[in-house]
Design brief:
alpha+beta, six-stranded antiparallel β-sheet, five-stranded antiparallel β-sheet, about 180 residues, 2 domains
Length: about 180
């Protein structure tokens, strides 16, 4: 009995620093992603993600004359892994890098969720910044997208429902 207690205590002392290191790493992971700032920890664009991006209406709008979606390359985008649904690399945030995709003070952001069959697109929004919030809906982080005009700040809050992120609030705040 004493031997079992000693073994349990040893396991606890070995596992605890590892668990704290993972929690510390998760807490220090970026949660705000800016249009004009590069990702702190960029990752390569996966083939399944690029295939989805090539079908996006805004991406297709950048093709000229008789160009085909195959002309769209991973260089048009950048990506970073995020903790989207209780897992350190359970999602990707992708943003446009090709100026053709840029808007007036906004760019498109795409959010992909990792599942057993690869990545699935769960949100596409145009924004100046995207933030992963500390609140959760259906085991997915809530997301806030923000943009600004000369007169007001526009935010859109998204919650995960029915396999996608859906807008739940869209407040406008005057700039004073």
């Amino acid at each position: 009995m004493i031997r079992a207690i000693i073994i349990a205590v040893l396991i606890l002392f070995v596992a605890l620093p590892f668990a704290n290191a993972q929690e510390s790493q998760r807490a220090s992971a970026p949660t705000v992603f800016q249009a004009e700032e590069p990702f702190a920890h960029p990752v390569a664009i996966r083939d399944d993600v690029l295939a989805a991006l090539k079908k996006d209406e805004r991406t297709l709008g950048c093709l000229k004359n008789h160009e085909k979606p195959d002309e769209v390359t991973a260089a048009w985008f950048s990506a970073t892994e995020v903790d989207l649904h209780h897992g350190a690399a359970s999602g990707l945030i992708v943003k446009a890098e090709n100026p053709c995709l840029f808007g007036a003070n906004i760019i498109p952001f795409w959010v992909f969720s990792r599942g057993s069959n690869g990545y699935a697109l769960v949100l596409r929004t145009d924004a100046l910044s995207v933030e992963l919030l500390n609140t959760w809906t259906n085991n997915y982080r809530d997301i806030r997208a923000s943009a600004a005009t000369a007169r007001e700040v526009l935010t859109a809050d998204y919650r995960f429902k029915d396999g996608r992120y859906q807008r739940v609030r869209n407040p406008r705040t005057p700039i004073r």
